[in-house]
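User: Teach me something about this protein's shape.
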Amino acid sequence: MSKTVAITNQKGGVGKTSTASAVVSGLAEKGYKILAIDLDPQGNLGFCLGAEIDNSPTVYELMKGTVPVEQVIQRNQGIDIIPSNILLSGAELEFSQLGREYLLKNGIAPVRGNYDYIVIDTPPALNILTVNAYTATDNIIIPMIPEILSLLGISQLRETIELVKGIYNPKIEVLGILLNKYDRRRILTKDVEEMAEIIAKELDTKVFKTKIRSSVSVAEAPAHGESVYKYSPRANTTKDYRQLVDELITQKGMKLDGEEKQ
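Assistant: First, the predicted structure itself:
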């Protein structure tokens, strides 16, 4: 059975999509069968992974129930992708039926067994799309940056996770908090890191040992149609993401049953 992870934070600019893209590409690089799901109306994950987002069916049609999952999945460079686009921005009003929290989970159910890992990129908001991601996933990663404003709203995030865990998905677990744009030389970084540890305890989780340093290659790679691993294999950020992927696949909630892939 596949392991599913949602990358989430209601605050924008914390490296959420960059993290999702790097995790997806890093797992694929190791030979795992991957499905990437873009649940953000901005469609950035699909763009990063080379998907067609304007003239093909997307996760919107999948959740609406007008197109089966097999027709929504695109394949590029060994990665299967369910893209998104701006049509998804009206989901809060349009998806109002009973059971709307299960639309994504039910939509991907027919193909879930085809993959080792499913990675979901969520919008920078706490709405019905986020709840769908949490209902469909086993695990959550919370990226944040070493800035005070990045800490705000974590309590709301915790409440949403607890709500979903109590009603829709009792198996969901927070794998950890991931610090992006990390610079140990800044005094503020140490202060925020200490506060992140406190927040992690409140969420019954941890701060990942791996910290992701800043690099322009993360922003440049999608424009060249490449993953950060191919575009800038020697960059510090690339090394950090590889280390993160290694750390992830050793986590209890991410280990594949009966497999010893390295």
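Now, about its shape. The chain has 13 helices and seven strands. Strands lie at 3-7, 34-38, 74-76, 79-82, 117-121, 139-144, 173-179. If you'd like, I can walk through any region in more detail.
User: That's plenty for now, thanks!
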